[in-house]
Amino acid sequence: MTGSATGAFTATGSLTRFTVRRDRVRILVWIGAIALLVASTVASVQGLYPTQADLDAAAVASQDNAGAIIFNGPPQGLDTVGGQVAFQTGTFGLILMGLMSVFMLGRLTRGEEEAGRVELVRSLPVGAHASPAAALITVAAMDVVSGLLVVAVGIGLGLPVAGSVAFGLSFATFGLLLAAVTAVVAQITDNTRVVYGIGGLVLGTSFLLRAIGDIGDGTVSWLSPIGWAQKTRPWAGEVWWPFLLLVGATALCTWAALVLSRRRDLGGGLVAPRAGPARASAWLGGPFGLAGRLQRVSVVGWTASLAVLAVAYGSIADSIQDFVEDNEALTDIIAAQGGGTLIEQYVVMSFRILALIAAGFALQSALRIRSEESAGRAEDVLATPVSRTRLALGHLVIAFAGSLGIMVVSGLAFGLADAAVRGRSDLITTAVVAALTYTPAVWVLVGVTVALIGCAPRLSPWAWGILALCFVIGMFGQLLGLPGWVEGLSPFQRVPEYPAADLEPVPLVVLSGVALGLTTLGLVGFRRRDVG
Amino acid sequence: MNLAISISGLEKRFGAFRALDGLDLEVATGEVHGFLGPNGSGKTTTIRVLLGLLRADGGSVVLLGGDPWRDAVALHRRLAYVPGDVTLWPKLTGGEVIDLLGRLRGDLDPVRRDELLERFELDPTKRARTYSKGNRQKVGLVAALASRAELLMLDEPTSGLDPLMEMEFQDCIREVKAEGRTVLLSSHILAEVEALCDRVSIIRAGRTRAQGTLEELRGMTRTSVTGVVDGPVDGVGALPGIHGLEVDGHRVHFEVDTEHLDAAVRWLAAAGVRSLVSRPPTLEELFLERYGDEA
C-alpha cells in the first residue's frame, strides 16, 4: 500500500514550519551562541599568537599538558592557528552541539507528548510519524546550519578551507548523531527528564572516554563519538573517513527510533510504569519532605555524575606531575602564569569546572519553585496551611545543602582517586577544601535564581543564561582576553584559587553574604507577588 | 447572618485587563453556595484571591473572619480546596498525594480517606501521570472531602466525572452540609447546582449580576406563556414587559417579565381563555439570560 507509506508523514512540512516558528528565539540563540563561540575563539587565537614563533611556543606548552588535553581535546596541529582553534573550542563546541540536540529533540518529541499536545495534533489529518519527523527535521536543520556557520566563520576569518570544512562538518555530524540517539531514548521512556538525563550521560561518557584516550595513545578515544569527530583532525591533516562512523551511527539510531516508535502507544514508553505505594511514607508530610521526594532522583543523579567526573580528574592528577618534570618549557610557562605548581593549578581548574556543573544542579533545584508554580502544583500546597516561604525553603534547602554535599563528594572522589593512583593520601584534604571554597560561588547563582523567581518570575529561565556566561568566563576568560571587570562578574572568578593561592576567607564570606542577601530578597518578593 | 465569605467591590487587574471589576459575594455559614458564570467571568480569579494566591487591587474580602492574604496560613487550616483542573506530581501515586495534602492540612482522617477511595472507586497505587482527567479530579476530591475543614472551596470539582461519580459527589456534599459545614461550589452543571445549592451568585465580566435563592432568581426573570383565546389578539403587543411575541391565528406565545405577569394574565382572561400553558424559566434559560450581553 503506497498510501500508508506517504500517509505516515502527511503534514510533516506544515508541522515543521510551525515548530520553527514557535521555537524561533530558542533556535537562533543556540545557533548564534555556537557560531559566536567559534568566531571569538578564532579571533582571539589570531590576536594571541600573531607569529609562528608564538604558535610554536604555545604548541610546546600544550603538547604534553595532560590537564589541558583532558579539558580541551587531542593535541593536533597545535602550531597552526586552526589547530589551536580546534584545541581551544573543539570539545566544548561539540558538547554544546550535543546539548542543543538533546534538549531540543527531547523537548519537541517526548516533552510535547508528555504535555499532551501531540494528542491534539494527531487527531488532525496528520501522519503518525509527522510530529517526530518534524522535530527531527527541525533539529537536524539546526545542526546543519550551525555546522555551515562554523565553516563560514573559519573560511571568513582566513583559516584553510579543508580544515574549516572538516571542523564544521564534525560539529554538524556529531549534533545529528546526538539528535538520533535522543530520538531512540525518547521512545523508551515516557518521562522527558529521563530523556535529558540519558542524553547528558551519553555526552558525559563520550567526554570521559576521549579524555582518557587523548592523554594515552588515543585508542580509547575511538570508543567515543566526540573522539570520532576529533579523529577527523581539522587543520591537522584532515582525515575524512571517521565521518562515516558518525553518519552511519546516526542512520542506525534513526532507523531504531522509527522501528521502536511503531511498537508503542502514544504517550506510553516501551518501559511500562509500575504500581506505586497506596499510602505516603511517614516523611512525605510537609514541604521539606515533598521537595525531598521530588528532587531525590535528581540529587542522586547529579551527585553520581559529578563523583564520576571527579574520580576521572583525580586519577589523572598524578600524570600531570610526570609531564611537567619532563618539560622545561612548560615549567617556565606555569611560573609565568603566576601562583602555584601545575598540579595546584590543575586542582583549581578541576574544581572550577566541577563547581560550574554543580551549579547546574543548584539552578535546576531552585527553579523547581518556579516550575511547580507554573505547573499549578504550588497551588495545591499553598491552599493548605503552608506559607510561601516554607514552600520555597523546601526546595532551597536542597539547592543549598545539595550543592554543598555534591562539592564535598566531588572533593573526596578527586582526592581518593588520586590517593589510589599514588598510594599517598596527602591531596584528599586539599581537594575537599578546594571543593568547599567554590561552594559559596554556586550559592550566589542560587541567590540570583531565587531573586529572579521572587521579583521577576518571567525572567527566571535567564538564570541558565547567567550560568552559561559564568561558564564562558571560567573556561575562555583568559583566552578571550576579557577585561577584568567582566571576569569579575562571575562569582566563580572571585573564589581564592586554593591551593594555587592562599585561602583568603574574606571573598568566601562576601560571596556567602551576597547569596544570602539575594535569597532573602527573592523570598520577600515571592511573598508579595501573585502566585500562578 | 453569620458569613463564611464576605466580598464587596473586589477588583483585580492583570495588566490592562480587569478580571474582577467590583465583585460582591456573600456566603453564609452552613450553606452550599453556587458560584456561576460563563467561562472567563472571574470565578477562578475570585477563588484564587480567597486562597491568598492573588492580591486584591481593591474592595474588601473577609474569609472566615480573617484576611485571606495576610492570614493565609491560619485560614488554610480551616478550609479545603479542589481546583477545576487538578494538577498532580507525576511521579507520586494518587494515595501519596491524598496523604500528603491531608498531612499538610494537618487533619487527615485515614478511615474517611479509605471510605472515600472506595466510594469514588479510585486506585491509589497508580502514578499521577497515568491518571485520566476524571481520576485526577477524584484525587483532589478525596483529599478535600477526607478533611474536617469547615469550608470547602470547589472550583468545577466534577468536571470529567461520570454520572455515577457525580451522584456520589452530590451525596458527599449533602453529608458535608448536614454536618453544618460551608461549601462554595463553582459549577457549570446546572442539575448539580439545582440539586445542591441553597443560594447562588451569578457573575459576568468580573461583576456580580444576581445573588439569591433559585426561587428568587426565577422571580427576577421571565415566564413563558402560551395561550389560545376566543377574542382578537391585536392588543397583546401593547402590553408592558412582553418579549418574543408569536401570533398564529388565535394562538399566542410570549415571554413576560415576572413583574408584568399579572397584566398579561388579565388581558388573556379578558380575551376569553380556551387553553393556557405557563411555565417558569428553566435553569438553562435563567442562566443564558444572565450570562448573555443583555443582562
State the main characteristics:
heterodimer; A: 532 residues; mainly alpha; 2 domains; 21 helices; 0% strand; disordered N terminus; B: 295 residues; alpha/beta; six-stranded mixed β-sheet; four-stranded antiparallel β-sheet; 10 helices; 31% strand
Describe this structure in words.
The complex is a heterodimer of chains A (532) and B (295). Chain A has helices at residues 2-7, 12-22, 24-48, 52-63, 66-72, 81-114, 117-122, 130-156, 161-188, 192-215, 225-231, 242-262, 287-326, 328-337, 342-374, 377-382, 388-422, 427-455, 462-480, 484-487, 505-528. With 532 residues, chain A is an all-alpha fold. Chain A folds into two domains: 11-272, no CATH class; 281-532. In chain A, helix 13 runs antiparallel to helix 15 (342-374), helix 13 packs parallel to helix 17 (388-422) and helix 15 (342-374) runs antiparallel to helix 19. The radius of gyration of chain A is 24 Å and the shape is globular. The model of chain A is unreliable at 1-5 (pLDDT under 50). Chain B is an alpha/beta fold. Chain B has helices at 43-50, 72-76, 94-105, 110-119, 133-145, 163-178, 190-196, 214-219, 261-270, 283-291; strands at residues 3-14, 17-28, 32-36, 58-63, 79-82, 151-155, 182-186, 199-204, 207-212, 222-229, 242-248, 251-257, 273-279. The two termini of chain B are 28 Å apart. Chain A binds chain B through residues 114, 190-191, 273, 275-280, 284-287, 289-290, 293-294, 375-377, 379-387, 528-532, and chain B through 48, 51-55, 72-74, 76-77, 79-81, 83, 85-93, 95-101, 103-106, 124-127, 129-130.
Instruction: Determine the structural class of chain A based on helices, strands and strand pairing.
Output: mainly alpha
Largest sheet report of chain B = 6 strands, mixed
Along the chain, the helix and strand elements of chain A come as HHHHHHHHHHHHHHHHHHHHH
The fraction of residues in strands of chain B falls at: 25-35%
> What is the gyration radius of chain A calculated from CA atoms?
24 Å
How far apart the termini of chain A lie comes to: 50 Å
Q: Output mean pLDDT of chain B.
A: 89
Total helical segments of chain A: 21
Gross morphology of chain B: elongated
Give me the count of strands of chain B.
13
Quaternary class: heterodimer
Net shape of chain A: globular
Q: Main β-sheet of chain A: number of strands, strand sense, barrel status?
A: none
Question: Into which percent range does the helicity of residues of chain B fall?
Answer: 25-40%
Distance between the termini of chain B: 28 Å
The whole-angstrom Rg of chain B is: 23 Å
Strand content of chain A: under 5%
| Biggest chain-to-chain interface with counts | A-B, 35 and 41 residues
Mean pLDDT score of chain A = 88
If helices are DSSP runs of H or I spanning 4 or more residues, what is the number of helices of chain B? 10
Number of strands of chain A: 0
